[in-house]
Request: fold
Amino acid sequence: MRRMRILVLGAGALGGYFGARLLEAGAELAFLVRPGRQAQLRRDGLSVRCPALGDWRQPVTALLAGEVRPGWDVVLLSCKAYDLDTAIEAVRPAVGPETAVLPVLNGLSHIDTLRAAFGEAAVLGGLARIRATLTPDGEVRNLSDWRALAFGELDGRMTPRVEALAALARRGGILAEAVPDIRAAMWAKLVHLGTVAAATVLMRGSTGQIARAPGGVDFMHRLLERNIAIAAAHGVAMPPSFAAEYRAMLADPAAGYTASMLRDLEQGGRIEADHILGHLLAAAERAGVERDLHALACLHARTYEERRAEEKARRKAAAGRAA
Reply:
């Protein structure tokens, strides 16, 4: 049987982790990376640490954009949403008539962009549930036992390509599922992520720290309820069990849960303000849902981005004067 050929865009926390697991399952796989990461991978191989599956290290194939050719069965996009346009141009040479493009980006707005670039039939819907990080020395570390992937055809069909990919991923230890209604699953993740991102970015603390502060649980529950209402107005009703699960999680004073957006912000990096918080703010306006909390969270994140850009320009000017 021919091995599935998979090109993974990026070998960071998400792409590196799932790429390693798919390699372990027997895929013919390469990572599409930037020159610095290529040199690192060629020198050291890819190293992954995972509490559930143990440590893994081996040489991998790392390609630059100019080295990509057609012939891939799946292109896995693991970039941040703000890098989507660059990612599309990088993988375009790899996408042929039979290639499935599987994005596991946060939010929903990227789907229309990808379908415009590659055609409706090429693009799958997908999401990942993982808490991983890339260390400065290039090691991928999974910070929990989360390692889930869900994906499916956007028209709801269960096709051989999604079933084959799910079976392959499960052989590698990924908690993978091909689902018939991937849009609903993506909305559920956006409701969850949008709540935690807005809360932890605004309050600069974990959900447990917010919960221990007077009024914190009520604040997070109001965010959750409004996000559930936004999804319902867009045709996706969250089941009662979903609301109960996340209400309990947000009320846990011992939880150390933070959104990746907060972690990126605290490290001075770029954040997906428009793609998550801005998307939900616009969706709230369309749905007629009270928007004050979403507007405040979005303003907070966009102000950070303005400050970051200003400081970057100042550093660049100072370096120019010193030269």
